[in-house]
Write a structure and sequence with these properties.
The chain has 236 residues and is mainly alpha-helical. The chain folds into 2 domains: 148 residues, no CATH class; 72 residues, no CATH class. Helix content is 66%, strand content 4%. It has 11 helices and 4 strands, in the order H-H-E-E-H-H-H-H-H-H-H-E-E-H-H. It has a two-stranded antiparallel ribbon. A hairpin with a 2-residue loop joins strand 1 and strand 2. Helix 3 packs parallel to helix 5. The chain is globular.
Amino acid sequence: MANHFINIHFNWVLYHIPVSGIGVTGDNSYNSWPVIIDQNIFGVHHLWEYGTTNGKVTYDPEGLLATFPASVNVIFGLIIGVFYTRNKNQYTTRLLFVLGAFLLLLGFSLDYFNVMPAIKKIWTSSFVLLSSGFSILLLAFIRFLLTKYLVTKKILYPFIVYGANAIVAFMLSNMLIPVFDMLIAKELSIRMFGYEFFKYFISNPKWSSFAFTCSFLIVLFLFLNLLYKKRIFLKI
C-alpha cells in the first residue's frame, strides 16, 4: 500500500501539477519538477556533472524527488524479506516467479501504452515495477538453482560475498574514485595506468577497460571475502 501511494503521488506531481510560470512539464530533463526542486534546493553546482541537457547541467538522477519512488524498490525488498522470515512455508519459488512476472508485465504495460514511460534517471513508476519485477524473478531463479543444484552455491559464492556487504562494496567503489584519478606520473593517473596496462595485452579499448574493471572487482572481492569469513557485516 505504501509503495503504491508513493508511486501514484509521484506520477500526479509530474503529469498534473504545473510548475510555477511554466506549466505541466512532465518528465523532461530541464524544467520538470525533479529538476526545479533539485536546482533550487541544492544548486546547479551540486548536481551530477553528467546530468546535462544540451551541454548544460540540469538534473540529478539521484535527486530529492526521484528518491521517493526509488525507495519503493527498497520496500519491495523489505516485504519479500519479512514474508520469508514470517511465512517460510508459503515462501515458494513459484510464488516469487508469479509475483516477479506480474510486476514486470505491469511495468512494461505502463511504458508500452505510454501511461508512464520507464525512465531510470527519475525512477518513474514503470521503471520501479520493471526493476522490482526483474529483481524478484532473478531471486526466484537463483532460489530454484540453489534448491535443485547444490553446486550452484559454490558458483555463486562471489555474489554471496558481495551481497552480504553490498553497502561496503558500494561505499568503497565510490570512495576510491578520487584515488583512481590521482596522478602517479606526469598526466598519468592510476585509472589511466590500469587502462594502458591491460591495453598492452588487449588491443580493443572497450575490452581492456572491462578487464581493468574486473581486476578492481577481484581486489574488492578479496577484502569483502575477509569480512565475510570474519562474519563482519555492515547493516542499516
